[in-house]
Amino acid sequence: DGLPPEWEDNFGDFSGKRTDVIMIAQITPDGEGQLISLPRDLRVTIPGKGINKINAAFVFGGPDLLIQTIQENFGISINNYIEINFGGFGKVVDSLGGIEITFDNPARDAKSGLRVEEGTQRLDGEMALAYARSRFYQELRNGKWVSVRGSDIGRTGRQQEVLMTMFRQAKSPGSAFNLPGFVGTFAEQITADEGITPGVLLELGKAGLALDVENIDMRTLPVEISNQNGTSYVIPVEPEASALLAAFRAGVPFPPEE
Questions:
Q1: Is the pLDDT confidence value at 197 over 90?
Q2: Helices 179-189 and 198-210: crossing angle, nearest 10°?
Q3: pTM of the model
C-alpha cells in the first residue's frame, strides 16, 4: 500500500502501560468529525477488576480491556485502536515542520520542559509534546508566574489544540503537506489493531483532509473532582456528560457548549 514492509511490524503489536491520553473519534454520516477526550483519572468500572481510574485498564489488560471498559461504561462501540508513544508524537510533529501556537504570555512547565516566549511560536516536536503534556502550566503575568489551566482538564484542552493546529496546517493553502509521506512517518511511530493497515491509514488521511475545519468538534467529557476512599478521581457531570455521549453514539451534532 505504498509503505515500506518493515513498517508493517508496528501493526497488531502492543505493550502494557498506563495510558496518558485517551481520545475517541469518528466521522459521522453527515461528514462531521467528532472527538471526545476521556480524562485519565476518570472513575470507571474495569471489567473483572472493579472500580479504578480509566488509565489503569491498559495496565491490567492492554488495549482489549481498555476498549471493553469504554464500551461497557459508555455504550460506545470501538472499531479500531491506534496507540502512539511520546517520542513518536514528537516525530510526527517534526514531520510537519513543527506547529505554530500563539501564547498571550510567556509560558513554562518545569516538569514537562515547556518554556516559550509571548507571541506566535513555532514549536518543534519536543516542545509541542511538552506543551501537550503540561500539567503544571504557568504564565508570566505582571512579572509573576501564575498557574493556569494546570489540571488534567486544561491539559486535554492543550492536546486538542495541538491536534487541531496540525490539521489546520495540513489543510492550509500553499501547504507542502504530503499525505503519503506523513502517513509513512505516522505508521512508523504507532501500534494499532490488525484492522489498521497502511492502506487504511491512507484512506483515513484522505477522509480527514476532506473534512471542513469548521465541521470538526472536539470536546472533553464534562467531569468534576471526587475524592473517594482516599483516592482522587474525576466523575462525569450530569446531565451534560450523558448528553455528549448520546450524541456521539447517535452520530449527531454535539449539544452546544455552555
A1: no
A2: 130
A3: 0.86
